[in-house]
Prior knowledge:
Layout: E1 2-8, H1 19-38, E2 43-47, E3 50-54, H2 59-65, E4 73-81, H3 84-101, E5 107-114, H4 123-137, E6 142-143, E7 150-156, E8 160-164, E9 168-169, E10 181-185, H5 191-201, E11 205-212, H6 220-233, E12 242-246, H7 248-257, H8 263-282, E13 286-288, H9 301-308, E14 315-316, H10 324-334, H11 337-340, H12 362-369, H13 374-383
Parallel strand pairs: 5-6, 5-7, 10-11, 10-13, 11-12, 13-14
Antiparallel strand pairs: 1-3, 1-4, 2-3, 4-8, 4-9, 7-8
Helix pairs in contact: 1-2, 3-4, 5-10, 8-9, 8-13
Magnesium ion (MG) binds at residues 187, 189, 346.
Amino acid sequence: MERAVLLRYHEIALKGQNRKWFERRLIQNAQKIIQREIGTKINVTQKRGRILLHTPWNPQVKTALSHVFGISSFSPMRMVETNWLSLEKAANEEVSQLLKDHPSLNSFRVLTRRSEKALGENSMEIDKILGAAILKNFPFLKVSLKNPEFRVGVEIRNESSYLWTDKNEGLGGLPVGTNGHLLCLLSGGLDSPIAALQMLKRGTQVSFIHFYGTPFVESQVLEKIEDLVTIINRYQPKAQPLYVIPFGKIQEKIALVTHPRLRTVLYRRMMVRISCELSKKINAQALVTGESLGQVASQTIENLSNIESVSSLPILRPLIGFDKSEIIKYAEKWGTYETSIRPSLDCCTLFADRHPATKSTSSQLEREEARFPVEEFIAEALGQIL
Ligand code: ATP
Ligand code: MG
């Protein structure tokens, strides 16, 4: 009896010509992320529309698969010869094992899908026949088609069929590495880590840049950023680097000559310019930020467009329409919440007014920027990358 783990995927199945390439990427990503978790490389086979991982099922494999974008669901399953005797026997053994682990279960249904027409009966008939075979052995169980407490899943195929009782929801999205390379401006809050993860979900690879308020903020900030990068990198097949830009001294110099209420946006414009320069060096194609419209004074449409206008790359803002409560839900789901809420001071507030201007204009900002050497500060920052 062979056991394997069955991966299902939706969206990538729709990709026409590119489908094979997407599938290969998904397989490689799953292999790498599992290998990182369990320490050994696993074998994989591919059957039309399905991926089989040849590995025993255990909590580490489950954890690894819950970090792989592109999977719609996954099941530990066994492969069974496609004949009635083997199917009935296997179904009863699986149910017996399940009831040993969860004795209080009492309603079920069989759910068959005929991927290949190996048996004469249609899928509803197969449901009935296997259901009856299970009831014969476990007469205390009830069949419930609408609200079963567990399902026995069957996928009929010519060579061998698949059978499972456990189906885990996957992350969905596209495999990381199928949609380019982004640079995420990562601060220590709740938002930017979720912005990075949203873009990973769409298949991009993400590197990180942090503007570090040293020597005016404590080094705890940096530990927090590094911890967040470690969490996010678990979702990428290859961990991507964090670039830390010492920024406090530059902010201090900007603060000496500029209006306090414009400084937050001025800092952000410098961050964007520096990030665009770094992107050229590391071949990143766009920036990602955690901005959400109207969330704070610096995120009004006027300020966002004045930040955007100094960028030579597109700025992606996947959270633009999110409420804070939605962002928190993702932070809990994806595992960044506990780290993000650790107290820390972000450099944006350094030397800045507590009430930044909500309606900066480009002429105001340009006037302020004429008072300090923008290009020189960009070069200085890039020369000091940690
Ligand atoms: P977050 O929760 O991500 O910290 P926020 O709600 O605190 O965001 P802002 O402080 O206005 O909002 O920052 C908006 C975005 O600017 C952040 O999501 C992040 O992408 C970027 N950003 C802000 N500060 C930094 C920093 N020190 N280093 C890198 N990026 C930053
Ligand atoms: Mg912040």
